[in-house]
Design a protein that fits this description.
Number of strands: 18
CATH topology of the domain at 335-501: Isoleucyl-tRNA Synthetase, Domain 1
Mean pLDDT: 93
Distance between the termini: 46 Å
Low-confidence stretches: none
Shape: elongated
């Protein structure tokens, strides 16, 4: 089955920060899990390079929008690579193929009678690249996100007849209650629609950095129409000489932060309807990472550098922390203290020590060969249905809940080791069979949770599975008892070595 997952494309008006890493890692976790299930996966990320935010940033830096886009697109590519994202393509909206495809799709929309020329008058936020309604302002004239005063603007634009899609959108939401997740975001989008939709600007006439409108080159397309179409256009040229849209369209899930909900949950499906293209199956809207109760944002200046975190603790630690600390879909606070606590107590102590002592005991008591053993009923019962429960969480894009399911079994294995005390059994020759069972259960349980943890901590999982002598990552193998004894274990340096606080400061 085809599974197409996307991140939003990221503005190149500044360098990447932890919020970008968060979304990219979440989408990658989904993609990796689905590949384990044998799905035909396509994972897209990239950069949004047109529009006023980029033009203004370039002007401030004394460079051109193209030079700024080229410089920062490399940094976003580097971020994807460094967080071990397995994206199948990295789109740039300055790609010639994207530009041509945008012009083709929006010309189709124009020919369908969904576009007209008019004059826009209202308040516009250059940082959001968004025309604001009265309900989206605070203090009468300030952007609710960036807190800056917005001047009244008047400009000739082409308009998209969004109002004509009021009933089709209400019908979409009625027929597909899981279209937007989580539920509170579905309700928020539906409420916005029910307030009544107004036509919106499709083009800008006072801006040159954008995709030219083919029927009137005095205008460029409003950046959001250009950007939203990336999810579709990428499939038309990601593989040279091949159009992947029949194989992967519509997208299975678009992953995004809540500040772009309106564009994706209202404008995007309406645009697709106007272009006679299928709407995506799901949108998943996650919350903000907060520091000191403020959204982490490059424009606000309160960011954690993900590159520094990865250099000190490793990429897997960052991936784990971001998926574990904040329930995916909700706002949540992050901090260096919280990261260090998760790293030490969970990754190093609970998982890392479980791996180290299990391998050490097999090496010491059974000459490095995992013994044959009958899985103990109590432990087997704890693992029963685990892979299926994890899969259900992933189907709902409940990434943190999936990790919680797995981590309960990591803790259960630690408790089992404490209860059975194999180091004591090893002293009693009459307990040899029992020791075989315990060591097999620990090695087998460790293998199962590691297969399931692979999407979250891929490098660590691969190292541990190699040491256990069974590197099969398929989800079919994530069943307790599916791995037999007799495998030879290898050596494994600490998965999550301790990092001195002084070094991390």
């Amino acid at each position: 089955m085809a599974y197409y997952v996307t991140t939003p494309i990221y503005y190149v008006n500044a360098e990447p920060h932890l919020g970008h890493a968060y979304t990219t890692i979440a989408a990658d976790v989904l993609a990796r899990h689905m590949r384990q299930r044998g799905e035909d996966v396509f994972f897209l990320t990239g950069t949004d390079e047109h529009g006023e935010p980029v033009a203004l940033a370039a002007e401030r830096l004394g460079t051109t929008p193209r030079e700024l886009a080229d410089r920062n697109a490399v940094r976003f590519r580097d971020l994807a690579r460094q967080v071990d994202a397995t994206n199948d393509f990295f789109i740039r909206t300055s790609d010639e193929q994207h530009v041509a495809a945008v012009q083709e799709v929006l010309s189709r929309v124009e020919r369908g009678g969904h576009v007209y020329l008019g004059t826009y008058e209202g308040r516009y936020c250059p940082r959001c690249a968004d025309f604001k309604t009265e309900g989206e302002l605070i203090d009468g004239n300030r952007c609710a996100i960036h807190k800056i005063e917005l001047a009244l603007e008047r400009e000739e634009n082409y308009f998209f007849r969004l109002s004509a899609f009021q009933e089709p959108l209400e019908r979409l939401y009625a027929e597909r209650p899981g279209f937007v997740r989580p539920e509170n975001r579905y309700n928020e989008a539906l409420s916005f629609i029910r307030q009544g939709l107004n036509d919106i600007s499709l083009s800008r006439s006072q801006l040159t950095w954008g995709v030219p409108v083919p029927w009137d080159e005095r205008h460029v397309f409003y950046v959001w129409f250009d950007a939203l179409l990336n999810y579709y256009t990428a499939l038309t040229y990601a593989r040279p000489g091949e159009d992947l849209s029949e194989r992967f369209w519509p997208a299975t899930v678009h992953v995004m932060a809540k500040d772009i909900l309106k564009f994706h949950a209202v404008i995007w499906p309406a645009l697709l309807m106007a272009a006679e293209l299928e709407v995506p199956k799901h949108l998943f809207v996650h919350g903000y990472l907060l520091m000191e109760e403020e959204k982490m944002s490059k424009s606000l200046g309160n960011v954690i550098d993900p590159f520094q975190v990865m250099e000190l603790y490793g990429t897997d630690a960052l991936r784990y922390y971001l998926m574990r600390e904040v329930s995916f879909g909700q706002d949540g606070s992050v901090s260096t203290e919280g990261f260090e606590t998760r790293y030490t107590t969970e990754l190093a102590n609970e998982y890392g020590n479980l791996a180290s002592r299990t391998l050490a005991m097999v090496a010491r008591y059974r000459d490095g060969i995992v013994p044959e053993g009958e899985p103990p009923d109590a432990l087997a019962g704890d693992f029963d249905g685990l892979a299926e429960r994890v899969g259900e969480r992933f189907d709902a894009v409940a990434v943190t809940a999936a990790l919680d399911e797995i981590w309960r079994l990591v803790r259960r294995l630690n408790q089992y080791a404490q209860d059975e005390a194999p180091w004591q059994l090893a002293k009693d020759d009459d307990a040899a069979e029992r020791l075989d069972q315990v060591l097999y259960a620990l090695a087998e349980g460790l293998r199962v949770v590691t297969v399931l943890l692979h999407p979250f901590v891929p490098k660590s999982a691969e190292r541990l599975l190699a040491a256990l002598g069974d590197e099969d990552l398929s989800l079919d193998r994530a069943q307790f008892g599916a791995g037999g004894g007799g495998t030879r274990i290898g050596e494994l340096p600490p998965l999550f070595p301790r990092v001195a606080r002084a070094a991390a400061a």
